[in-house]
Structures are given as structure tokens and as C-alpha cells.
Amino acid sequence: MTEPKSSFSLRDVIEIAFRRKKMIFTIIPLVTMFAIVITALTHRVFQSEMKFLVQNSRGNVIISAEKTAATTAANDVTEQQINSELEILYSRDVLEPVADPAWDPRYASTRSPEEVRQHEKLVSDFQRHLSAEPTRKSNVINVSLTADSPAMAQATLQRLSTAYLAEHRKLQRPPGASDFFSNEADRYRKAWDEATQKLVEFQQQHQLVTTADQQTSLEKDIATAQTNLRDTDVSLHELEARMKADSRKLSQTPQRQVTTRKTVPNQQSIQQLSSLVVELENKRTALLTQFRSDDRLVKEIDQQLMQTREALNNAIGSSAEELTSDVDPTWQQLRTVYVQDEIKHAATVQQKNALIQQIASLNKKMGEVQGLTVPFNLLQSRAENLKENYTLYMQKRDQAQIEDAMDERKLLNVAIAESPTLSYMPVKPKPLTNLALGLASAVFIALACVYFAEMTRTTISTPRELESLSRHPVLATLPVASRIYEATLMPPTLPRTPNTSLLIHRKERL
To answer: Per the confidence metrics, is the pTM higher than 0.70?
Structure first.
């Protein structure tokens, strides 16, 4: 025997609807009426809208200690930029002055806990009524605000736009930049004047323009003096070599030259020696009369007499030669050159000593200038740095003044594309929408109740359900006349017996 398959068809749905029609027609009117009452009792809320256009028409100048560089505005607005503007719009610095105008954040620490809670409640309520979102594929931010009246919504949104643009301007460029740069420029100008005056006094005191120029000039003088000294050394070596050669030639060259040679006999010497011999012989004769021949005095006379005779013989045998000489011209020329070289050598030595002293003096001056280099460079560097800072702050001051003028004319990267609107049509409540939602909710709740009622039902309503549970065909059904209760309780699971034709469960309406 083939078991019947359970299925859920449109007929079942209709049967359930007819079976639960009382529940359905009770729930739907009640829920719909509740939605109508809620709509009638809901307070009317009005909405004002405005639009902000985010653009890059104005480049942002970065305030830093560096030189102001030219900025080029980006061509496209990025998603990050739009999200940043939304974050600024939702920041508490923008919302607090609008939500609670009497609140002063500077005295927040002195407020009582109750005042702080009241302030937080106002800000939270304002955030709940405020809505801002970017328009898709555009640079526009739509801002809407709901309030109890159209004028209040428009005025509040106007205050919000003012606070937002002020915060955007403050974040784009901090306020007071022009005054700060102006004060700094004046301060650096005074410091630059003082540094320049000290530098001038230092130059006048040490009689220099710049140490670099002074060092360059001294280096040139020292180089020239050293070149001259080397040339002088070369000249000295040449002079010494030439003087040495001249001295050697002078020693080899006779000073005088014989010009006349005359030979004459030595008559005067012969006469003198002859007279001397006679005198000595006379003296010897006289001594022999008094002394013996071997006496010492006689021997001395004999010796003198012998020597005189020898000298006489030599004089007689020799002749006198008379010579006449004059200064040798070669020697005289060599001597003149040598003396001139000596004079030149002495002058060159003096010149060398003078150059050595000059180089020592220049080196000393160079040392003094090098000793002045550090303080001079410090003074000059300080003056130059102060001048650069003064020029930098002057440029930044002018740039900040231009930025201030642009801020006053509201030339920002965020512009109001649409001013806050004034609408007398309430956005809440919406009767037709609420009625449609109430009706849809009523139908959904009714269907849900029917579904749960059917799911929790423990009775058998149709023969098909009986066939599905018993898995046996139903032979006959009885019309509903009254409640028939089963005398005996049947178990939830019906037995499979071939003789079973009709099962009536307890409390089952047949």
C-alpha cells in the first residue's frame, strides 16, 4: 500500500484563513487603528535643508618655520576630504555652540554635574535631529535638521553653517597668524639691526672688511714673498758658486807682473864685507897679543872672520838683479768681479733676511686674522641668519594678511551651495505612509499570529490531516452537529490497523 505524501497547497492556506478569520479580522483593525492613533498623537516636526560644496579652488598654505612654498590646488576633491569635512561638521566644537548657546567650554570644569548632564542631553538631542551625508558621485554635502517649527529649523541650520564655516576656517589656517608673523618680523628686525651694528664695530676695530678677503690678500702677499725668497736663495747660491770660482782663480793668478829686469854687481856689499874682514883681522891680532890662540875670544873672532870671508866670496861670486813689476790686469779684473760679487752677496743676504722678516710678519698677521675669523664669522652668520628670518617672517606676514583678506571675503574651499530652506510641510508624521505601514504591520502581525496558532494546534481539522497522520484512507466524515468527545483517550500516535475507518480525537471538532 502506497503511503500518501503530505503537501501544503493554496487550498490549505484558504482553509487556514477561513478557520482563523476571527483572529485575522480582529488583529488587523486593532493594529491599523493603533497606527492611526499614533499618527494623530505624534508631534509635528519640520525640516530645513542646505547644501555645502566642497572644492579645491583655494590652496592651503602650510604654516611652518620653513620658507613659504607655492601651493597648487588639487584638481579633484578626494573622498577623504569630504569625510574630513563631515567629521568637522559633526565635531563638538561646531555642535555645542549651536545646541547650547549658553554653554562656555572654558568654564566646563566649574559646572555642576546637573548642568553638564543637561548640556550633554541638548547636544545628543541636536545630533539626533541633525543629518549630513555626501551626495553620491558629487562634491556636495546635504545637511538636514528637524525642529518643532520651520523658522526654528531654518535659524538653527543657519547658525550651524556659520559655526561650521568658522571652524573650517580656523582648522584650515589658525587665527592670529598675521599678528604673530608681524610681531616676529619686528623682533627679528631689531635683532638684525643690533647684530649688524656689532659686526660694523668689530670691522672698524680690527680694520677689516671680511676675514676671507683679508686672508686672501695675506695669502697672496705671503706667496709673493716666498717666491721672492726662493729667487733670492737661487741668486745667493749662484753668487756663492761664482765667488768660490773667482777665489780659486785669484789664488792661482799672481797679483803683480814683472815688467823690467836689470842685472848689476853687488859692489856695496863687497866693500862692506871687505872692510869687515879687515876689522876682524885687526881685532884678532890684538887679541893674540893678550891671549893664546886657543882662547875662547880668539876662537870667536876666527869664526866670525871665516863667516865674513864666506859672505865676501859669495858677494863677489853673485850679481844683483833689479826687477820692475806692475799689477796683473787679469788678477785686477778677477779681484774687481770678486769684490762686486761680495757686495751683491751681502745685499742679497740682507734682502733674504728682509724677506724672511716680511714672511714672518705676514704669517703673524695671518694668525691674527685667523684668530678673528671665528668671532667675525659668528657675528656675520648671526646677522645673516637674522636677516633671513626677518625676510621669511615678512613674507609669511604678507601671506597671512592675504589669507585674512580671503577669509573675510569667505573665499574658502567649502561654499554654501544652497541656503537653509523654509518648509511648512511637516516631515513627521506622514499620515499616508504611517497608514500604509500600519496596515502592512497589521497584516504581518495577523499572519504571524495565525502561523503560531497553527503551529501550536493539537487538533485534526480535515480528513486529509487525518489521512496524513493515520496513513490510512478516510472512508467517511460526519457533518458538524455538536462536539463529540471520544470516550476513550487515544494515544498521539495512531495504530496502523486495517479495520480503522474513522478516528475521533479528544476535543476534536468533526
So the answer is: no
Compute CA 337 distance to the chain's CA centroid, rounded to the nearest angstrom: 77
Q: Tell me the pairing of strands 46-54 and 140-147.
A: antiparallel
Q: Give per-residue burial for 437-454: e unless 16+ CB within 10 Å, then b.
A: ebeebbeeebeeebeeee
Q: Provide the CB-side half-sphere exposure for 139 (13 A, CA).
A: 15
Beta strands per DSSP E along 354-443: 414-418
Q: Which helix (H) or strand (E) holds 438?
A: helix 431-455
Q: Give the per-residue pLDDT at 479.
A: 60
Question: Within its chain, how far is the Cα of 440 from the centroid?
Answer: 66
Instruction: Quote the strand ranges of 55-139, DSSP E.
Output: 130-134
Residue 400: partners with Cβ closer than 8 Å, 6 or more residues away: 173, 177, 178, 180, 181
Per the model's pLDDT, the better-predicted residue between 2 and 263 turns out to be: 263
Q: What is the pLDDT of residues 338-361, one digit of tens each?
A: 888 888 888 888 888 998 898 888
Mean residue pLDDT of the chain comes to 77
Q: Evaluate whether 253 touches 328 at the Cβ level (below 8 Å).
A: yes
Q: How far apart are CA 275 and CA 435, in angstroms?
A: 192
Q: Report pLDDT for 510.
A: 36
- Angstrom distance (rounded) from CA 107 to CA 123: 17
Out of 226-240, 271-285, 356-370, pick the least confident: 271-285
pLDDT digits (tens, 9 = 90+) for 195-228: 888 888 887 887 777 777 777 888 888 899 889 8
Rounded CA-CA distance 21/16 in Å is 8
Instruction: Verify cis geometry, omega within 30 degrees of 0, for the bond prior to 463.
Output: no
- In the chain, count H helices and then E strands: 13, 6
Grid-cell match 619686528, residue found: 186
Strand order across the beta sheet in which 46-54 lies: 130-134, 140-147, 46-54, 414-418
Question: Is pLDDT at 492 greater than 80 in this prediction?
Answer: no
- How far is the C-alpha of 149 from the C-alpha of 425, rounded, in Å? 10
CB of 251 closer than 8 Å to CB of 378 = no
Backbone φ, ψ for residue 325 (5° rounding)? -125, 165
Q: Give burial (CB, 10 Å; 0-12/13-18/19+) of 181.
A: buried
Q: Which residue has the cell 788678477?
A: 331
Q: How far apart are the first and last CA of the chain?
A: 26
Q: Report which of 415, 481, 387 is spatially closest to residue 191, judged by C-alpha positions.
A: 387
Burial 375-400 (b: 16+ CB within 10 A, else e): ebeebbebbeebbebbebbbebbebb
